[in-house]
Design brief:
2 domains, about 375 residues, mainly alpha, 4-stranded mixed beta sheet, 4 strands, abc type-2 transporter like fold
């Protein structure tokens, strides 16, 4: 016996019952094992924040050696892919409107004469702003190419008076998988833990077996913990499996101690399981529980820094993000996997997540007891 009559035997019985149900339910197993792996493979290969090979159309009115040299700079840059050439302003505009090209480069007829006269040679860069990330990258790279061309002409082989040498730490190749997958690892496990647990009590309600459980000696706390333990085990296994795929298939190195990350992840899993159990006590059907679970998952994805940097958010949302467990877990995941951070740097994340786990579990248990009474 544990304190106040909490029985290990009854707890094991509830846990065993839930494990048997999961093993007998192919849909639950498929969702728990296969779907997260498929989402990892699909999103891991599809998401790429590095803008490359932007479709570019060229209108070279000058057709001189200088204009061709400039256009070769754009062509040699991986950011642009020249897909065609036009010969009128109208055709240039139509190529951008139709979507055949995202960038249009127009070199005016007097470009070389102005350079030879010591004046500024102007080049028109038309950028499709309907995709903000593509537009920003195209503008930045265009300015960099123009600056490089200008410096080459000014210094004429002499050394530059000032040279900046940026060095990118932790992800020197700026690979998108290195940035996204450590966060995706957290998001997938969060979705699985919440959605599966949200159905735990609701399933008993729909089948009419919840009342039968109330007639047994099983206490409310034992029922909650017994139903939660199998999903905690599934979530831990899923977390380790996705981390293994992340390292082997996508080549994302784990620079820190994975056991440290797993120790920080445990209170996060408990918090998500607690939220899922709280949802299951409120919802009456599985459809309702799924909608409530998705209603909490989607805001946590957008507010956690997984997609958008927290520093770029308004002040109110930056503070709001601190109340989201996913924010702290994604920061810990990227810290261990990419930066090689250890317990000394990440203990605040573990402390905050532990507090959130206690709050979620106590709230869900209290809500369940209230429903029982």
């Amino acid at each position: 016996m544990i304190r106040k009559g909490l029985s290990i035997k009854r707890l094991v019985s509830v846990t065993r019952k839930e494990v048997i149900h999961i093993l007998r339910d192919p849909a639950t197993l498929f969702f728990a094992v296969v779907i997260p792996v498929l989402e990892l493979l699909m999103l891991g290969y599809a998401i790429d924040t590095n803008v490359r090979h932007v479709r570019t159309i060229v209108f070279d009115e000058a057709r001189t050696q200088e204009s061709r040299a400039l256009l070769r700079r754009f062509e040699n840059a991986e950011d642009f892919s020249i897909v065609g050439e036009v010969f009128t302003d109208r055709d240039l505009g139509e190529a951008l409107v139709s979507g055949r090209a995202r960038v249009g480069i127009k070199v005016p007829e007097n470009y070389s004469r102005r350079l030879q006269a010591g004046q500024t040679g102007q080049v028109l860069i038309l950028v499709d702003g309907s995709e903000s990330s593509v537009a920003a990258e195209a503008v930045n790279v265009s300015n960099a190419i123009a600056l490089s061309e200008s410096l080459d002409r000014l210094v004429a082989g002499r050394a530059l008076p000032v040279e900046a040498r940026p060095r990118v730490l932790f992800n020197p190749d700026t690979r998108s998988p290195n940035f996204f997958i450590p966060g995706l690892l957290v998001v997938l496990c969060q979705m699985m833990a919440m959605m599966l647990t949200a159905n735990a009590i609701v399933r008993e309600k729909e089948k009419g077996t919840l009342e039968q459980l109330f007639m047994t000696p099983v206490r409310a706390s034992e029922l909650m913990v017994g139903k939660m333990l199998p999903y905690l085990g599934f979530t831990v296994l899923e977390f380790c499996g996705i981390a293994l795929l992340m390292n082997t298939i996508f080549g994302v190195p784990i620079r820190g101690n994975f056991l440290t990350l797993l120790a920080i992840a445990l209170p996060f899993f408990l918090a998500m399981l607690g939220v899922g159990l709280w949802i299951s006590t409120r919802a009456q059907t599985r459809d309702a529980s799924l909608q409530m679970a998705m209603g909490t998952v989607i805001p946590s994805i957008f507010l956690s820094g997984y997609v958008f940097p927290l520093d770029s958010m308004p002040t109110f949302f930056r503070y709001l993000a601190q109340a989201v467990p996913t924010t702290w877990m994604i920061d810990a995941s990227r810290g261990v996997i990419l930066r090689g951070a250890g317990w000394a740097e990440l203990w605040p994340n573990a402390a905050v997540l532990s507090g959130m786990a206690v709050l979620a579990l106590v709230s869900s248990t209290a809500m369940f007891r209230k429903r029982v009474s």
